[in-house]
Design brief:
CATH class of the largest domain in chain A: Alpha Beta
Number of helices of chain A: 15
CATH topology of the largest domain in chain A: Rossmann fold
CATH superfamily of the largest domain in chain B: Thiamin diphosphate (ThDP)-binding fold, Pyr/PP domains
Order of helices and strands of chain A: HEHHHEHHHHEHEEEHEHEHHHH
Largest interface: A-B, 43 and 38 residues
Number of domains of chain B: 2
Number of domains of chain A: 2
Largest sheet of chain B: 7 strands, mixed
Radius of gyration of chain A: 22 Å
Strand order of the largest sheet of chain A: 1-7-8-4-3-2
Radius of gyration of chain B: 20 Å
Largest sheet of chain A: 6 strands, mixed
CATH architecture of the largest domain in chain A: 3-Layer(aba) Sandwich
Number of strands of chain A: 8
Number of helices of chain B: 13
Helix content of chain B: 25-40%
Helix content of chain A: 40-55%
Bound molecules: thiamine diphosphate, magnesium ion
Structural class of chain B: alpha/beta
Low-confidence stretches of chain A: 1-65
Strand order of the largest sheet of chain B: 3-2-4-5-7-6-12
CATH topology of the largest domain in chain B: Rossmann fold
Number of strands of chain B: 14
Oligomer: heterodimer
Mean pLDDT of chain A: 86
Order of helices and strands of chain B: HEHEHEHEHHEHEHEEEEHEEHEHEHH
Low-confidence stretches of chain B: 1-23
């Protein structure tokens, strides 16, 4: 695709979207404020990071990301595919808005909004192939979309009709993980298996800035590194863990942590969908090639409340919100599409129509979801029959009115 | 409820330190507010008491139980911790070794498990291992139980894991007055206490008598480990704790109105150690016992109560001890939780079965 380089310049004014934890460039980058993402003013701490890639000797031979021509990783994108990324983001945001309003109307028990994180999720999600496996937290509705998971199935969890209504194997998308950080270890083990099986794919695991403090996540970093597993750690630093700012979790930049565990890391502008796509494609390629894990820190922002149960006015300023509002990932891609002449009125109008229909159908399907059969709560406790559960099920079934089962 | 409840009304709470003699007199306060006031008194009374957990500072906790504490006591004593439960408990152990009295908040029941090793292998055992040299006055507050329509891991009842562990004390409050007093007693305890808060009862209000707020009693934890009769009755005994005490009281109400039965309700309050005297005394009079909790039945608190009552009051029993509990399944999705949770009907069914023997 022509003009990708300019395009990335356009999306990230100044073109400074990436720093790399590598021996070769750290000092230089750390001293150059322009080399860090423009969303953070503190210069990174901790110079003298070890070489990128497991098993590298001093000055190791692995390429660092600054040596990599990132635009190459999105050079094949056609105009239609570029518009497709925009369409994904528009639909996913609309899903989010619809879910938020369904929650307010009592149709969902809770909703965790992804507003503001569409670029990080669609960019990384569209980098995945059919052989790859994604491990989400609870906010990855955009990645779920990219993996072909029915949005209604995602809503079902928040409606309280089931605990995870899709088949992870079918979609290459594990169940949501509400216990913060636990999924990073599952992804590590899964990737160990992929390596042993000589799978052509890689795994990717999503987690937040808050999660980066959990023991599980740090243990996953160590294991993934030692066993050089084909895994991309994708941290969406959305600046907040409920009411706690990211600086309460880490005094270094999160992406710098990988260095201590001995694997490479990248920070990317998480509101730039092309940059996220390019970086994730690169990271997946590295993992698939057997060079071990990569940590990607996508710097983004949780524009909404933590969940519909949260009141962010208690802990963050409207000025901050306003500043990030100006970096809205949807505005960014729209600006870019417009500049490339890809926002023809007719196409935009058709997308608006499609979005309305999508939202309307999603709402209808959500509100039509019946409560599950009460006796189903006894299903699948274990693979083998458990006498105690079976006895409880029969006793329970006997108490139900005929209409209830 | 134990005697000498020491409670302030809302005015006292918001009035910045004035504790007694509020002209407006007692007003109903929520269980969450009662805990908040209890924490505040404990912090005011002892500068070594510190509160730590996720979102407990600026936000005041997701249930607002620690609301206002950061402002009043400052960042050194009200700590918004990084997101790491094992670290919350592990560092509390170190702080306690330095003479502090940490009060840890675990945000929801389902998130205590990352701290399991620190609680079960470290916190519970250091006093024993050190031949009594080390004391760990750590309180771990956990909102527990279901009934709020939450997503997964927000509705669990993990008490049995902790009751099974020697070295830990486990208590559960069920009403505002107890909540206010028990949290202060727990903090004064020189042993680690798992302090379970019935989250679906956080917003239930009760008038709590005003009085001297949080004066240390001669026996620092006096009354913390005693159970209490919540409603007197003569025909059968219901035993509950935490959120199911209210359910048992409702069942007793319905039973009196519909069946003319007089049910006694005992609130266990302390799950480890158990104070079974009031239960045994009750069973000796009624001959019938139904134990109610949200946790699954298998190897549970009700199993222990049933075993001990059978050992100690066998000849008083007219029927086997029956149990109404959560099922032995994972906590189900929210739309099914009403089927899972013990309710008035299931309790009264059990009472009927007891009378059927
Ligand atoms: C082990 C664990 N502890 C606490 C919680 C409660 N909790 C849910 S989300 C959250 C904050 C997570 O922040 P972050 O990892 O940054 O993800 P984000 O919500 O910003 O997407 C907390 C504390 C949890 N779900 N799991
Ligand atoms: Mg976050």
């Amino acid at each position: 695709m022509r003009g990708v380089a300019e395009l990335m310049q356009l999306l990230t004014p100044g073109g400074h979207r990436i720093t790399v934890a590598s021996r070769a460039r750290t000092t230089e980058l750390a001293e150059s404020p322009t080399a860090t993402c423009d969303s953070r003013s503190d210069p990174p701490r901790g110079a003298g990071l070890p070489a990128a890639g497991p098993g590298n000797g001093p000055g190791g031979g692995e390429p660092t990301i600054v040596d990599i021509d990132l635009p190459v990783y999105v050079a094949d994108l056609t105009d239609d595919e570029l518009f497709g990324l925009y369409r994904d983001m528009v639909l996913v945001r609309r899903m989010d808005e619809e879910a938020t309003s369904l929650q307010r109307q009592g149709e969902l028990g809770l909703w965790a909004s992804l507003r503001g994180q569409e670029a990080a999720q669609v960019g990384s999600g569209r980098a995945l192939g059919p052989d790859d496996m994604a491990f989400p937290s609870y906010r990855e509705h955009g990645v779920a979309w990219c993996r072909g998971v029915d949005p209604a199935a995602v809503l079902a969890i928040f409606r309280g009709v089931n605990l995870g209504g899709w088949d992870p194997a079918e979609h290459g998308f594990a169940l949501y993980s509400i216990v913060v950080g636990a999924q990073t270890l599952h992804a590590t083990g899964y990737a160990m298996g992929m390596a042993q099986d000589r799978s052509p794919g890689a795994a990717i695991v999503y987690f937040g800035d808050g999660a980066s403090s959990e023991g599980d996540v740090n243990e996953a970093f160590g294991w993934a590194s030692v066993f050089a597993v084909p895994l991309v750690f994708f941290c969406q630093n959305n600046q907040w863990a409920i009411s706690e700012p990211a600086r309460r979790q880490s005094r270094t930049e999160i992406f710098h942590r990988a260095a201590g565990f001995g694997f490479p890391s990248v920070r990317v502008d998480g509101n730039d969908v092309l940059a996220c796509l390019a970086v994730t494609r690169w990271a997946l390629a590295t993992a698939r090639a057997g060079r071990g894990p990569v940590l990607v820190e996508a710097v983004t922002y949780r524009m909404g409340a933590h969940t519909t149960a949260d009141d962010p006015t208690r802990y963050r300023s409207s000025a901050e919100l306003e500043a990030w509002h100006r970096r809205d990932p949807l505005d960014r891609i729209r600006t870019h599409l417009a500049a490339r002449g890809l926002l023809a009125q007719e196409r935009d109008r058709r997308l608006a129509l499609e979005t309305d229909t999508f939202a309307h159908e999603l709402r209808a399907r959500c509100t039509a979801m019946p409560d599950p059969d009460p006796t189903s709560l006894f299903d699948h406790v274990q693979v083998t029959e458990n006498g105690l559960v079976a006895a409880q099920r029969s006793a329970f079934a006997a108490t139900l009115d005929p209409g209830e089962t | 409820m134990t005697s000498g409840a020491v409670i302030a009304g809302e005015q006292a709470a918001d009035g910045g330190g004035q504790r007694t003699g509020e002209p407006a007199g007692p007003v109903p306060i929520t269980l969450a507010k009662a805990l908040n006031l209890g924490l505040r008194s404990a912090m005011a009374a002892d500068p070594k008491v510190i509160v730590m957990g996720e979102d407990v500072g600026t936000l005041g906790g997701v249930f607002r139980v620690t609301d206002g504490l950061l402002k009043e006591f400052g960042e050194a004593r009200v700590i918004d911790t990084p997101l790491a439960e094992s670290a919350i408990v592990g560092t509390a152990i170190g702080l306690a070794m330095r003479g502090y009295r940490p009060v840890c908040e675990i945000q929801f029941d389902g998130f205590v498990y990352p701290a399991f090793d620190q609680i079960v292998s470290q916190l519970a055992k250091l006093h024993y291992r050190s031949a009594g040299r080390i004391r760990l006055p750590v309180t771990i507050r956990i909102p527990f139980g279901g009934g709020i329509g939450a997503v997964e891991h927000h509705s669990e009842s993990p008490e049995a894991y902790f009751c099974h562990t020697a070295g830990l004390k486990v208590v559960a409050c069920s009403n505002p007055a107890d909540a206010h007093q028990m949290i202060q007693q727990a903090i004064r305890s020189d042993d680690p206490v798992i302090f379970l808060e019935p989250k679906r009862r956080y917003w239930e209000k009760a008038v709590v008598d005003p009085g001297s707020l949080g004066e240390p009693s001669p026996d620092a934890t006096g009354g913390l480990h005693s159970s209490a009769v919540a409603r007197a009755g003569t025909d059968a005994t219901l035993v509950g704790y935490g959120p199911t005490v209210r359910t048992c009281l409702d069942a007793a109400e319905v039973s009196a109105a519909d069946d003319g039965r007089s049910l006694e309700v005992v609130d266990l309050r302390s799950l480890s150690p158990l104070d079974l005297e009031p239960v045994l005394a009750s069973v000796r009079r009624t001959g019938r016992l139904v134990v109610v909790h949200e946790a699954p039945s298998n190897v549970s608190v009700s199993a222990e109560v049933a075993a001990r009552v059978t050992e100690q009051a066998f000849y008083s029993l007219e029927a086997p001890v029956l149990r109404v509990t959560g099922f032995d399944t994972p906590y189900p999705p929210a739309r099914l939780e009403d089927h899972y949770l013990p309710d008035v009907d299931r309790i009264l069914d059990a009472v009927d079965r007891s009378f059927g023997y």
